[in-house]
# Entry
Amino acid sequence: MRLKTAWMYHDIMDLYGDKGNIMTLKKRCEDRGIEFDLHTVGIGENADLSDFDLVFIGGGADKEQESLLPDLLSRKENIAKAIDENTFFLLICGGYQLFGQHYEAADHEKLPGLGFYSYRTDTGKQKTRCIGNIIIEADLDGRKMKLVGFENHGGQTVHVEKPLGRVLHGFGNSFDAGMEGFYDGHVLGTYLHGPLLPKNPELADFVIAKGLAKKNPGFQYEDLQEIETPFANEARQVLFERYKVEQ
Ligand code: GLN
# Structure
């Protein structure tokens, strides 16, 4: 089996170790004999995203979001086709924000998003940012998962029709949202850096399974061979204990 993955804007969208997500996907695929076929797609580079099983975009500062925006918008039709044809999208923070209606940068400039979903991101009126460790309880196709990460965003995302999960510690989509991220079965957007997947091996496997399902219809999480991840689990334990969240 093969997981054909596009890492978009790899050279500019990479905050707080987001590239660790790619390293984790690669390791967890290769440990199982699944070929991890990685392609980077930068600004101006030709790619048919609907040909990929998985597309990943990391987070970035306002400046980077602004610089990639014309390229992202030029791919709108192709991205819609990819989503429609079951390519799975994993989007972190700045990448997540740009799939909604708009992103208002810290200087109040409003960048139009792809507009696929009703959520939109405005700048915080309180002139501060949501920063710190975060723990959420996510619901992924009925599978409940506690996810840990680190968030640092000025953007306040509102009108999220399908949140990824409930905040147990930290902020999430906005200072007082109580909810975090977006997930509709095809696109998973989240504010969790840290990076996300090394700290949440169960989610890494969920993403691998979603990607593999594109060319192997019916493929599920349960079909993946189990892998031990003692180090990640120890790190998670520390955060659960510190914030008194039951594992
Ligand atoms: N620039 C965006 C914000 O501040 C996204 C930041 C990020 O990706 N961490 O909200």
The domain at 2-242 is CATH 3.40.50.880 (Rossmann fold). The chain has a mean pLDDT of 96. Residues 20 and 240 are 21 Å apart (CA to CA). The chain has one domain: 2-242.
